[in-house]
Write a structure and sequence with these properties.
The protein is mainly α and 280 residues long. It contains 13 helices and no strands.
Length: 280
């Protein structure tokens, strides 16, 4: 059985989110045409992505202690199983490991990882508490995971579409999370879009992103980026996205926003499957 301290260190990294990153990068590499000779590089890239994500989650908890006491009191620091200093140390160690791993890859991959470590630190320290910029940073970095996976194997072009999908769906998810966390953000003086202007502008932004995302999924097939096998799972995704849009306008309670955020995670997984199946 894991000790409370070890469990706290693991919880700081948010293992589910780390696992999604670990899967996304090899997926991006495969979609970009990775060969069997490149699997060592792909494996290193996947580990790197996992360490970057884990580090980002740790430093996020360092900066968000007061907000988490309200919104997420079961997180390791609010519940008393980890300290702020331990979270910061974990961020530092994981970030160093991520950067060092990239010395085995190409210079472009190293540049992306250095950029990610820096921008994600400042996201937690500053951008998260600003209107829209924080949302855009998270969405950008999610899309960058696909760019990174493709750069590792030297085929950037094939990452553009999945990176676009990831960017748009994460704008939606970030806005929904902002609505969910409004009360804690107010008390923590985080000036997010719904805190500053109310839920309606935030819902409109999420709705526009959903419409653009659905249009992009349709365009990807119409322009023959993907084959007919892509259509069936992506149709499920589009229906689920429409359901999310309808429900978020009907009910903005934290519990509903949390369920919708989890629904968007399902969209990500099924959308990735659609791209896999439909790739020529």
């Amino acid at each position: 059985m894991l000790s409370r301290k070890l469990r706290a260190y693991i919880d700081l990294t948010r293992p589910v989110n780390v696992a999604i990153t670990l899967l996304s990068i090899p997926a991006a590499s495969i979609l970009a045409g990775a060969t069997t000779r490149q699997w060592l590089e792909v494996g290193i890239a996947a580990l790197t992505g996992g360490f970057v994500a884990a580090a980002a989650n740790s430093i996020n908890d360092y900066f968000d202690v007061e907000i988490d006491k309200i919104n997420k009191p079961t997180r390791p620091i609010p519940r008393g199983d980890a300290t702020k200093q331990e979270a910061r140390l974990e961020w530092f160690v994981l970030s160093i490991v991520a950067v060092v791993l990239n010395f085995f890859l190409n210079i472009y991959a190293l540049g992306i990882v250095l950029f990610a470590v820096v921008i994600l630190y400042w996201y937690s320290a500053l951008f998260k508490r600003t209107i829209i910029i924080g949302n855009l940073v998270v969405a950008l970095m999610t899309g960058m995971a696909f760019i990174y996976g493709a750069v590792v194997v030297g085929n950037l072009k094939r990452a553009i579409m999945p990176a676009t999908f990831a960017f748009l769906i994460n704008i939606v998810r970030e806005v929904i999370k902002d609505i969910e966390d409004m009360e804690g953000d107010r008390r923590g003086k985080a000036i997010t879009l719904p805190v500053r202007y109310g839920t309606a502008p935030a819902l409109w932004l999420a709705s526009v992103a959903i419409v653009l995302l659905i249009a992009t999924t349709i365009a990807a097939y119409e322009f023959k980026v993907y084959t007919i096998l892509y259509v069936y799972p992506v149709l499920f995704v589009d229906i689920l996205l429409l359901a999310v849009m309808i429900l978020m306008w009907k009910d903005q309670t934290p519990s509903t926003m949390n369920r919708l955020s989890n629904g968007l995670k399902v969209c990500m997984v099924v959308g990735l499957l659609a791209i896999f199946l439909g790739s020529p």
